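In response to a reviewer's request, we include the raw inputs and outputs for one of the modeled complexes. The two entities were modeled together in a single run.
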Amino acid sequence: MAIRSLKSGTFSRSGLVGNPVIMPGSYESIATVTVGAGGASSVSFTGIPSTYTHLQLRMFCQFNDTTAGLGGASLQFNSDTGTGYTRHELIGEGTAASSVGFGTGTYNGATVGRFYFTPSSSIFSPAVIDILDYTNTNKYTTVRALGGTDVNGSGGELRFSSSVWTNTAAVTSITIPASTYNFKQYSSIALYGVN
Amino acid sequence: MALQLFKIETVDVASPVSSVTFSNIPQTYSDLKLVASVRSNRAAAEDGFGITVNSASSGYTYRVLSSNGTSASNASTSFEQIWVARVNGNTTTANAFAHVDVLFPNYTSSNAKTYSVDGATESNTVEGYITFSTVAQSSTSAITSLTVQTINGTVGTNSSFTLYGVL
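The model returned the following structure tokens for the whole complex.
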């Protein structure tokens, strides 16, 4: 965790007496999962602390399949596998932009991006997902995601996505199933808390 | 040193207000980042979200890429001024709030200010407005205050705004 002197603005790694007064940063790592050999059908974060204002997920992933293409992952809160999630997306495929929208009843998770699936490739796809006010029980939980893939001249897709989980419960766990695929080895998903 | 965020101030709206202002913004960071969860009391599906820099009422231009759940479009304008994103109005699904994320790079420079804005309304319907905007504000003064507002209705209860400094 970065710590910063209120007096000088310089950074330090020690808060011991005699050192500058420190100010902790507002962005902290909670947990990181790196998929091992054999892959994983989903990744979960449980026991999420309620002490932050927002959460952020950073994904760098690839799916495993016998053919190549693009597939979507989803995000489920508190083990809710129902269809109480909406999706709205702005999509760029390299030629034209398009848009899709869905109310509840269609998807069983918030949308979080498009990832490459392939039997053999080193192309992993990034996605950054913000989950705002995740402990506020006056609000449905909103998810903002930006992610995409470029397959080095063989297609690709960028998606800016918004979803809402129509439930006011505080988020205590997150599950990210890999759709009908598996997350391939070396896929990485990191969860951060933002104060 | 890895990028780090430092919270400057959070405003949680306990009852409707016309706007929220961050003033006396410290000049010690590289960039500013604003994260907002917003719902307007406008009796409509959406409302505009506006940002006023240093109380300037003019000098804004922007380009926007947007979608509504059915189609995508883009536009540029110099006369909508401070309207930079769309947020939920109060006819949308109860308890649903829009999210808005704004980055003000190099906010202390003596050049014209540019910033990027992305936002999305959320509702339990096909209709949902997503916007990506880049805004230029012609003033060369360092940013010392920011005022955010919903354009046609008051800022609703439980909306929240957090301003971060980025190093």
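As requested, we also summarize the result in words. The CA atoms of residues 137 and 188 of chain A lie 30 Å apart. The radius of gyration of chain A is 19 Å.
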